Amino acid sequence: MAVVIAAATWCARGEARAQGVPPAYGLPGAHTHDGFFLRLTPGLGGAASSESVDGLPLTLSGGGISGSVAVGGAISPRVVLCAETTAISAVDPTVEYRGDRVELTGGAYAVQYLGLAASYYFASNAYLHAGIGGMWVGVETPDGASMTTDAGLAVKGAGGREWWVSDNCGLGVAGSMLLGSVRDGDVDMPTALVSVELSATYN
Q1: First and final CA of the chain: distance in angstroms?
Q2: Which of 52, 42, 35 is nearest to 8 (CA)?
Q3: For residue 176, what are the β-bridge partners?
Q4: How far is CA 63 from CA 86, 87, 92, 157, in A?
Q5: Pick from 56, 96, 171, 183: most CB atoms within 10 A?
């Protein structure tokens, strides 16, 4: 929440500095998606990765703080192209194997994504978002050992709704899903991430 409040404050101050007056509405380009684009989406999510070990599925899962940063530009009043990074970090993840469920207390599980995306805004300022890129999975065990998988292909889908709080800034809510598969050695590891987020955009 603090990130979104800070983003809103930054937007308002930036416009005041640019105009030399308190933020005003209805100026040319107000409430329009044009020019430089920045969206921050902090939130909470859950992720899970699975691979086959001795012919049986081993699943690693956890929940925690998630978020994304997208930077790009508008190519029309409703279409934005951007580069985007998404991540989730979960502490004390859970491992399931052969019917046993063990919590890795003191361990960590992370999923990170980097890709290209496009957002389409409706007249209501609701939006749909889709992207494609690379994804990695990282794991740290309670004894401090860590590993990171090879990169794999992933796709992202998201949707949200924002309300204008100044000429160029919007705040709202969103939800997203990331699906892909990374390589753990010579084994495929399908991975999914789902999150609910706050959305702060400057455009």
Answers
A1: 20
A2: 42
A3: 158, 195
A4: 15, 12, 9, 19
A5: 171
Quick one: what percent of the chain has pLDDT higher than 90? 70
pLDDT at 29: 67
Question: In sequence order, what DSSP letters do the residues of 119-169 get, joined into one string?
Answer: EEE-TTSEEEEEEEEEEEEEEE-TTS-EEEPEEEEEEEEEEEEEEESSSSE
Q: Which domain holds residue 87?
A: 2-202
- DSSP letter (8 states) at residue 105: T
Give the CATH number of the domain where residue 27 resides.
2.40.160.20
- Residue 96 phi/psi, 5° resolution? -120, 130
Token pair of 64 as six digits: 């925690």
What is the Cα 10 distance to its own chain's centre? 21
Pick the closest to residue 30 from 188, 191, 164, 144 (CA basis).
164
pLDDT of residue 133: 98
Partners of 86 in the β-ladder? 68, 113
Q: What's the structural domain count of the chain?
A: 1
The pair of structure tokens assigned to 53 is 């070990």
β-strand partners of 46: 63, 194
| Residue with token string 């983003």 | 7
The pLDDT score that the predictor gives to residue 21 is: 36
